[in-house]
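Researcher: I'd like a candidate sequence for this fold, 301 residues long. If you have to choose between options at a position, lean toward the conservative one.
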């Protein structure tokens, strides 16, 4: 949690004080080139293209600089912040005053990344939280509003500069799976396929959707992996826990996993080592501890 707050504070520093020259002088163009990702350094001065958002260009007439922090990627960082924000919302690990301060900083950081996937994921998390509370009728109303807003944004995707590519990443790979049920092969779909695959671009699966990327590469063989994600959600959602603190964590993981999976339909950055690695690591730790506790109690009997 403290690391997340520090990361956001550094993000404000690099965004509003150090500026673009900090990254340019640090050699980010050369860094991307060394990883074979030089094509992504098409921003001003060799910055990664996603450092700036053009979603509101038609309204304000200028691109908006996004907060990137240590990660140097606004979409990954936005997705990363969802988990610590959810911890503050679902648990009482910190005092009320400290939770309020941390929550304000992290929410401001998420908004500053302009990460549509991160905000969408957090919206799903908040909706699930209310649905599992004593205010369930309000939760159903929020779910209705959330779905309406999502449908409206999808139907007006052209208003946002990058959203059509995210939608195409999912739809295009579904079409590819229908015509290639066993998939195109590893590395033949997704954003990195455009950089490293030797196949013609017309033969590659589109990027910007994690589910689309998996479907495009593995075809029907991706079904067990997708089912695993849903079974993990179901594991945390259905567990009847009598301990209040443990119950908070199970609801936390169910909500955050739902948000991450929903976001991954239209965002390739939703599931990665940086954006959600900590979430999956900790969900495994909590699940293992639950089984160990159950085993120890059974032995005592």
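Model: Candidate sequence:
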């Amino acid at each position: 949690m403290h690391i997340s707050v520090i990361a956001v504070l550094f993000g404000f520093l690099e965004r509003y004080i150090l500026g673009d020259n900090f990254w340019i002088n640090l050699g980010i163009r050369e860094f991307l080139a060394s990883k074979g990702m030089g094509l992504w350094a098409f921003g001003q001065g060799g910055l990664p293209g996603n450092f700036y958002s053009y979603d509101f260009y038609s309204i304000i007439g200028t691109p908006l600089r996004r907060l990137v922090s240590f990660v140097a990627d606004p979409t990954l960082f936005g997705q990363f912040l969802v988990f610590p924000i959810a911890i503050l919302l679902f648990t009482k690990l910190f005092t009320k005053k400290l939770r309020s301060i941390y929550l304000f900083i992290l929410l401001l950081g998420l908004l500053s990344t302009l990460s549509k996937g991160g905000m969408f994921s957090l919206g799903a998390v908040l909706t699930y939280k209310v649905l599992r509370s004593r205010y369930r009728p309000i939760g159903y109303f929020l779910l209705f509003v959330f779905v309406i807003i999502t449908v409206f944004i999808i139907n007006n995707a052209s208003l946002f500069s990058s959203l059509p590519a995210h939608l195409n990443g999912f739809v295009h790979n579904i079409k590819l799976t229908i015509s290639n049920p066993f998939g195109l092969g590893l590395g033949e779909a997704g954003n990195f396929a455009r950089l490293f695959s030797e196949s013609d671009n017309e033969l590659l699966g589109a990027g910007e959707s994690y589910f689309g990327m998996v479907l495009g590469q593995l075809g029907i063989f991706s079904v067990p992996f997708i089912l695993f994600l849903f079974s993990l959600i179901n594991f945390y959602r259905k567990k009847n826990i009598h301990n209040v603190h443990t119950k908070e964590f199970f609801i936390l993981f169910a909500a955050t996993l739902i948000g991450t999976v929903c976001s991954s339909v239209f965002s390739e950055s939703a599931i990665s080592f940086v954006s959600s690695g900590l979430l999956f690591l900790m969900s495994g730790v909590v699940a293992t501890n639950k089984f160990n506790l159950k085993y120890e109690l059974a032995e005592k009997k």
